[in-house]
Write a structure and sequence with these properties.
Arc Repressor Mutant, subunit A; seven-stranded mixed beta sheet; 27 strands; 15% strand
Length: 1249
């Protein structure tokens, strides 16, 4: 292939290239690299990403297709000593370029890269000389960039070490070791290094080779590469100390450009082609590498599979019919012919473990259509009874590896992976890597940060991007007139969007795929490189460096082990039922025709019901009023883009309100179960069989072809279908009509087996909710633990169902949510302590163990005496006190005042126990406890309901203490709506009265310039959206602020499946003060209503990020999804007590002598007359401590709600960030005193402004 490029001296091959998989600084897309090499008529292209082989298979296939030779390699890191040594003095490894010369070299490269990650990772994945020598065969080594071992010694003037290095590598790699030369203008010591390398080459006769260290494809990409590097390193272009390539030569240069720079070393140039010619790597694709299952007595795997299946057949069916026996024989025959028996045995083995351990499981996808899997107890759905056919799962014509996607209770998924590792060997099992890329909104936000543009600009532009899955910025600009206008009139916006488009889609990070697991017969490093799990958990299985498609391409068995929260909920619910009733009611024992279950579904009561919770689905399921599992399956299948337009037809036909029609009477039997509507892909296949004469295997190929919409393939299939239809006696017109019906649907239709599997899970969740509501809601809460929003939703649902939820208790709570029964048999849910923010499960488990061993805690002293200081630290203790876990021992405010003494006592007792010291009291036994300093808790509790509500919302996600407003809402007459569930789309056009609290208030302007408001009204069980037009705003000025309690009337409106209220009248609601009589409350209604807030609102929360030098001048935005399915940690942002403050006005000023010393308040009278309260706090550098202090400040602001402006100043570095709070406070000596107590007189001062 090189002959057309002769003479050799005129050619050049790039051997040192970084793609976007060099996650720190690479920008080149693999396809662009290959295309550019072809465009430059360069015969080969190498890929040498930093320490990994992520892109190896993709570039191999792309290059082969383009007629360019692929060279697989890496820029490896070599430890300065043993690879397992963790010496901070040697934390910077040497760089070295490795290239696979052949198949042996490729496999050695897989092992080297794996070892560097698994055994040698210390800041970087490092190999060492030991394994380099062990796996040296078939590898070409270049001495590396200026960070290489040879270059490092040259820079340090250590020529003895340089000669030793050359000798070692020359001996190990012989004629496959080259001295690497580069030329980039701003690299320190580059010329000196190159001169020394030339001299060493002359002295040792070791050959030289020229490379260019490319990080982007074209010179003009340098700016985008710089931006991407800033994104990856959390810096910006104005930072002179950022990681940055100072010249623009790091691209794929032409042979002429390289020759112009290196004409004095023609042999070093020619060696690039010589190396490329010596690299001959042929990789095999399309093979199937299924691990062999070890059968008893080495029976043939097919024989053993048949034994298991017929044994299972008799277990599943008491007296199997001829149809069932024949179906099983047919499936086994297909499996035998396709040679997949070992695969089925591996699946059986996994589920045998799962079933023995009682791990709740299910399968998704077409696997439920297999009778073999049903007999093996891999699936729990009878495919014969549910009319599922095997060919949708596996057939002779397609001969592809069947795909069995497995769902497990998400809290037990790791057990299944661990079993596979233990059973098949740690070298044979791994999870699969996945890569998150920059989506449209993330590209805008990240690029703005890299360009040092204001956050309010990026936030505004990002919000203009339509909320469409995987939308591209180009399409967003076309679809959003607002975005297009902003770009046209704002230069910063134009610059930002232009650069964001250039980096959009770039690889952002690597993570572990949420489901994919690979199992191999031989050690995985025979086929793929491995790396440590990105989860960082100790003992986690490694991940492949290849993502799913390359793993499949090399032929490895990929399985999906998915964690499904709803299975965990069902499992926990079953356990709670057993605890509360003494009887076992398993998921598979549930009757599938329970009238009560279908009744609640028909009412749209679907909170906590799998797949049916969304507002749109709730509306449709309510209209459908399902009566069978098949109805649920059909709705799950139809509720997707494309078939969604047929939902109305399906519902009307089911209830006899629309005539059912069929494209031909011969298709009646196939379409009658779905009321004449095409619902499933399976129906397309059956139509092709019945009408076009296809076998079901051929029909499956047709289905896939229709999905891909390849014109030439579709025309061929249309001709085949027509010929078959004509042969069966149908007309061409009839054939065309039916084919036209099938064609669009095959692409977006749903797999029936998948829909049925999901329908069963949906039904099970609904069944337990209606028949065991307390246990089910407790299980939902347990699953939601740690997600305050979901916990809040579940508790509101419990309130709606009249299920009591008790607060956390140090003496009654366990880690998770539990059921408690009182003396008269009433059940309640007890809040789990581990679900309290700042309280870890480990701490709770320790407390529960103490309680179980020696009984409940008698008083605070008893707690101090028994609990370990590691289990109950200050933050845990304060959080538990604030949510009421210590209420039986004193008032919350009083207990909080005693925290220092409690912690000191716990620490003293812990230290005493750990020292092993004894006293006279120890000799007297446990009946006489050792005396300790008494911790006095005053008897009178001065904690207000408002404080309790704020603390509980913050730490639990919902208030368990009934606030005055909640109590009053519950006392409203029936005509006042206080539950969001009582307003639905069926009331459209009706006027309703409601009472609630404002949140998420947005002040907007119409195109005509008129003001209007969008807001949410928080009711007892959730929010309902509202629109307030200018005429209502004029009639009720001053009340449209977050946190206000209001009484409204509004017209119910339903648009785009969302129910809202258009407000007609509104007034502020006057709460009764604590202890106020009815007559006093009535009299107060004639007085002006003060602004009353029970807490803060998420949509209006100030989120200053104290520890981020880039973001400190603006409140941080909520993290937003990029569309990538990844397992990464979101950026840390400050969270207010209940996340409910509107975004504050932000002002940034330099720190000067004047600003550093604001006028201090000399006395409380000055403060009272100032009309404003300003608090300044200095950033400490400890993010956790800073957040903690801000939370306390916010709580004090909320506690002292009033009518005076509140201003928070944050002193950070050289600047002061001023946040004008969107709420008011009450200036008082008490507030001043509490602030000084909290933060000290020197750190924070109240001032007159």
């Amino acid at each position: 292939m090189f002959e057309k490029y002769l003479p050799v001296t005129d050619q050049f091959v790039h051997l040192h290239n970084h793609s976007e998989y060099s996650l720190l600084d690479g920008f080149s897309r693999l396809g662009d690299m290959v295309n550019r090499a072809a465009e430059l008529e360069q015969p080969a292209i190498a890929l040498t990403d930093h320490g990994n082989l992520h892109g190896a298979i993709d570039i191999y296939q792309l290059a082969k297709k383009a007629g360019v030779k692929p060279i697989i390699g890496t820029e490896g890191y070599v430890a300065n000593g043993p690879r397992d040594e963790r010496n901070p003095q040697k934390r910077f490894p040497f760089h070295m370029t490795l290239l696979a010369q052949n198949r042996v070299g490729y496999q050695n490269l897989l092992k080297l890269v794996t070892a560097s990650h698994i055994e040698g990772f210390y800041y970087r994945p490092r190999m060492d000389r030991e394994i380099l020598e062990k796996y040296s065969e078939g590898l070409i080594v270049l001495s590396g960039c200026p960070s290489g071992e040879l270059a490092r010694y040259i820079k340090n003037g250590d020529m003895d070490a340089a000669h030793e290095t050359l000798e070692w590598y020359g001996n190990v790699f012989q004629d496959r070791y080259y001295l690497e030369l580069m030329m980039h203008e701003h690299v320190p010591n580059q010329a000196e290094i190159n001169q020394a390398i030339v001299e060493l080459s002359n002295q040792t006769d070791l050959p030289m080779v020229v490379t260019n260290d490319s990080h982007y494809v074209r010179r003009e990409d340098s700016e985008a590469q710089d931006i991407l590097t800033c994104i990856q390193t959390n810096s910006n272009v104005k930072d002179p100390n950022r990681l940055h390539m100072e010249d623009t030569t790091y691209y794929l240069r032409s042979a002429a450009e390289m020759q112009a720079d290196w004409s004095h070393l023609p042999v070093a140039l020619a060696n690039t082609v010589k190396i490329a010619e010596s690299c001959e790597l042929d990789l095999e694709f399309g093979q199937t590498l299924v691990p062999r299952y070890s059968t008893p007595n080495n029976k043939p795997s097919m024989e053993y599979l048949k034994e298991l299946c017929y044994e299972g057949l008799n277990k599943r069916f008491n007296n199997p019919s001829e149809e069932v026996i024949e179906r099983l024989g047919y499936e086994l025959g297909i499996i035998e012919e396709t040679k997949f028996s070992d695969y089925f045995l591996v699946c059986w083995d996994i589920f045998n473990f799962v079933n023995e351990r009682g791990i709740l499981s299910a399968v998704r996808g077409s696997a439920a259509a297999s009778l073999v899997l049903y007999c093996l107890e891999v699936t729990q759905i009878d495919p014969v009874e549910t009319d599922l056919f095997f060919e949708r799962f596996l057939n002779i014509e397609r001969r592809e590896m069947p795909d069995i996607d497995m769902d497990f209770a998400d809290d037990r998924r790791e057990e299944v992976i661990k079993y596979c590792i233990d059973h098949y060997g740690g070298e044979h099992v791994a999870q699969i890597v996945t890569f998150g890329t920059l989506g449209a909104r993330a590209a805008i936000r990240d690029t703005a940060r890299a360009l040092a543009l204001p956050l309010d600009l990026s936030d505004r532009l990002a919000k203009m991007v339509p909320n469409t899955l995987n939308i591209k910025l180009k399409d967003a600009i076309d679809e959003s007139a607002e975005l297009k206008l902003e770009i046209s009139r704002n230069r910063d916006a134009r610059e930002l969007i232009d650069m964001a488009q250039r980096v959009e889609g770039s690889v952002r990070h690597a993570s572990t795929h949420a489901a994919a697991v690979v199992i191999s017969e031989k050690p995985l490093t025979e086929y793929v490189p491995l790396q440590r799990s990105t989860s960082g958990k100790e003992g986690s299985s490694p991940t492949t460096q290849y993502s799913m498609n390359p793993v499949a391409a090399v032929g490895l068995l990929k399985m999906d082990f998915l964690g499904l929260a709803n299975l965990s909920i069902l499992d926990q619910c079953v356990k709670l039922i057993t605890e509360t009733t003494g009887e076992y009611m398993g998921v598979y024992d549930v009757p599938i025709d329970d009238a009560g279950t279908f009744n609640i579904l028909g009412e749209g009561d679907t909170f906590g019901v799998f797949q049916l919770e969304s507002e749109g689905m709730r509306k449709n399921i309510k209209q459908l009023k399902p009566t069978t599992i098949n109805d649920l399956a059909a709705m799950i299948a139809l509720y997707r883009p494309g078939p969604m337009e047929h939902i109305g037809t399906f519902i009307e036909a089911k209830h006899g309100r629309a005539e059912i029609s069929y494209p031909h009477d011969d298709l009646r039997e196939l379409l009658e179960p779905t009321y004449g509507v095409l619902v499933y892909q399976d129906q397309v296949m059956l139509i092709a069989q019945a009408f076009g004469g296809y076998t079901l295997g051929e029909a499956d190929i047709l289905r896939k072809a229709m999905g891909k919409k390849i014109a030439s393939v579709m025309q061929a299939e249309h001709d085949k279908f027509s010929a078959g239809a004509l042969e069966k006696g149908y007309t061409q017109e009839q054939a065309d009509t039916v084919f036209k019906l099938m064609e669009p649907f095959a692409g977006y239709g749903f797999n029936k087996a998948h829909a049925v599997s999901y329908a069963y899970i949906a039904y099970w969740t609904a069944y337990f909710k209606v028949n065991y509501p307390t246990e089910y809601i407790a299980a939902v809460l347990d699953s939601a633990s740690g997600n305050s929003e979901k916990v809040g939703q579940a508790i509101r649902e419990a309130t709606r169902l009249d299920i009591a939820v008790k607060p956390p208790s140090i003496n009654y709570s366990r880690s998770g949510f539990t059921i408690e029964r009182d003396a008269v048999g009433n059940d309640a849910i007890r809040f789990g302590m581990a679900a309290v923010k700042n309280v870890g499960a480990g701490a709770v488990d320790s407390i529960v163990e103490l309680r179980q061993a020696a009984g409940q805690f008698k008083d605070i002293e008893d707690i101090c005496r028994r609990v370990d200081s590691k289990s109950l630290n200050r933050r845990t203790l304060e959080s538990l006190i604030r949510v009421g876990a210590f209420d039986e021992f004193g008032g919350r405010s009083n207990l909080l005042e005693s925290v220092d003494r409690i912690i000191a006592a716990i620490q003293r007792q812990t230290k005493l126990r750990e020292s092993g010291q004894t006293s006279m009291f120890d000799m007297l036994g446990e009946s006489v406890p050792a005396p300790m300093v008494e911790i006095e808790i005053s008897g009178e509790d001065d904690t207000t309901d408002q404080e309790r509500v704020i603390w509980e919302r913050d730490l639990l996600g919902v208030e368990l203490t009934q606030s005055p407003f909640t109590r009053e809402m519950r006392q409203q007459p029936d005509n006042i709506v206080v539950f969001a569930a009582d307003i639905n789309e069926e009331m459209s056009g009706q006027t309703k009265a409601a009472l609630g609290q404002l949140n998420n208030v947005q002040n907007l302007t119409t195109k005509k310039g008129d003001p209007y408001v969008r807001a949410n009204l928080t009711l007892l069980d959730g929010d309902i959206e509202m629109v307030v037009w200018s005429n209502v705003i004029e009639q009720s000025p001053g009340i449209w602020e977050n946190g206000n309690f209001i009484s409204i009337t509004g017209r119910v409106e339903n648009r785009f499946g969302r129910t809202s209220l258009v407000i007609e009248t509104a007034s502020q609601y006057q709460l009764k003060a604590e202890g106020q009589t009815e007559s006093e409350a009535e009299a107060a209604k004639n007085e002006p209503a003060p602004v009353v807030r029970a807490g803060f609102n998420e949509a209006s929360e100030p989120r200053p990020v104290l520890n981020d030098p880039v973001r400190h001048a603006q409140p941080a935005s909520k993290p937003e999804s990029t569309g990538a399915q990844v397992n990464e940690t979101s950026p840390t942002t400050y969270e207010s007590p209940a996340q409910q403050i509107a975004e504050p006005t932000t002002e940034e000023t330099p720190l000067t002598t004047e600003s550093a010393a604001p006028a201090a308040i000399d006395n409380d009278d000055d403060l009272m007359e100032s009309g404003a309260v300003l608090v300044r706090v200095k950033e400490t550098g400890d993010a956790a401590d800073d957040r903690y202090r801000l939370e306390d400040i916010m709580r004090l602001f909320a506690e002292f709600s009033g009518a005076d402006p509140a201003i928070l100043e944050i002193e950070t570095g050289e600047k002061i960030i001023r946040l004008e709070m969107p709420f008011k406070v009450q200036s008082s000596s008490q507030l001043t005193e509490r602030l000084h107590d909290l933060l000290g007189n020197g750190a924070v001062r109240s001032v007159v402004i």
